[in-house]
Design goal:
Layout: H1 6-13, E1 20-23, H2 31-42, E2 48-52, H3 60-65, E3 70-73, H4 79-89, H5 113-123, E4 125-130, H6 133-137, H7 139-145, E5 150-153, H8 155-161, H9 171-187, E6 191-195, H10 198-206, E7 211-214, H11 217-232
Parallel strand pairs: 1-2, 2-3, 3-4, 4-5, 5-6, 6-7
Helix pairs in contact: 1-2, 4-7
C-alpha cells in the first residue's frame, strides 16, 4: 500500500490477500496514515505489516499501538541491526518499547497491562530485509540472532548494491539472491521476496518462499489503466 486513501486499502483487502504491507519507505505515507489502513484491513480480517527504513525505528511503538501486526525493516546488514529492531518493537525485558494502554491495540485501556504485554510479545511479527552485499555477507549472524520471524529479499536494492542497478537477471544479482534463499531455507526461517507479477510469485513459491509481496496498489491501478487504454486505441493505420 502506497496510497493514503483507506478506500483503496478496503478494495484490496477485500480481494482476499493474506496481508497488506504499508510502505513507509517508498511512498508519501506517514505514521498517521497507517491507522486508517489498519482499520480498513480490520474490516476484512487482514493483518498489516509496515515496511520502514532503519532510520524510522523510533516509530515502531506508535505503529504497533495503532494495531499493525508486524514491522518489516529494510536493509538489515548485521546482527546489531537485527537487535535494534527487536529493541524498538518489543517491551522490556526483551526490548525498550514504551507501554501505554490508552491505545487502539490495547482497546483503549480494556486490556490489562500484563496480558497486553504478553500478547504483544507473542503476536508481533518482525521481518528483516536482506537487500545488500553487506546483508548477504552477514546473513549467518543475522539468522543466529534469532530476532526475525521471517526474512525478505529486496531484488531492486540488491541489484544496486552489487553494481548492476535494475538488472535483477544479472548473474551477480541472481547469485546473491540464490545464496540468501539457500541459507535461509536451510536455517528453517520463512523467506519472502518482492514480486512484480503473480507469475513471478508462483515461481518463487515453487522454490519454497512463502512471504510473497505482489506489486503495489498504485502499480496495479496504473497497469490496469494502461491495459484498458491499449484495448480502446485503434491501430495507427486504422
Amino acid at each position: 500500500m502506497k496510497s493514503r486513501d483507506p478506500l483503496v486499502t478496503d478494495a484490496l483487502a477485500g480481494a482476499g490477500y493474506d496481508l497488506i504491507v504499508a510502505d513507509l519507505e517508498h511512498s508519501s505515507l506517514s505514521a498517521g496514515d497507517i491507522e486508517g489502513i489498519v482499520r480498513a484491513c480490520d474490516a476484512h480480517g487482514v493483518p498489516v505489516v509496515v515496511r520502514m527504513p532503519a532510520s524510522a525505528l523510533g516509530l515502531c511503538g506508535q505503529l504497533l499501538d495503532s494495531g499493525v501486526t508486524g514491522i518489516q525493516v529494510s536493509d538489515v546488514c548485521c546482527a546489531a541491526d537485527a537487535l535494534a529492531v527487536r529493541a524498538a518493537a518489543q517491551y522490556p525485558p526483551v526490548g525498550t518499547r514504551s507501554l501505554a494502554l490508552s491505545t487502539r491495540a490495547a482497546r483503549f485501556g480494556a486490556v490489562p497491562a500484563a496480558s497486553y504485554v504478553a500478547a504483544s510479545l507473542e503476536s508481533t511479527v518482525l521481518v528483516g530485509q536482506i537487500e545488500s552485499a553487506e546483508g548477504v555477507a552477514a546473513l549467518g549472524e543475522i539468522l543466529q540472532a534469532g530476532v526475525f520471524d521471517a526474512l525478505f529479499i529486496g531484488p531492486s536494492d540488491m541489484s544496486v548494491s552489487v553494481g548492476h542497478p535494475g538488472d535483477a537477471r544479472h548473474p551477480d544479482v541472481t547469485g546473491a539472491i540464490d545464496s540468501v534463499v539457500a541459507a535461509t531455507l536451510r536455517h528453517g526461517t520463512p523467506l519472502g521476496i518482492f514480486c512484480g507479477s503473480a507469475e513471478e510469485a508462483l515461481q518463487w513459491a515453487a522454490r519454497g518462499l512463502t512471504l510473497l509481496a505482489v506489486s503495489s496498489d498504485l502499480t496495479m491501478l496504473a497497469a490496469a489503466a494502461r491495459a484498458a487504454l491499449r484495448q480502446l486505441q485503434l491501430p495507427a493505420d486504422g
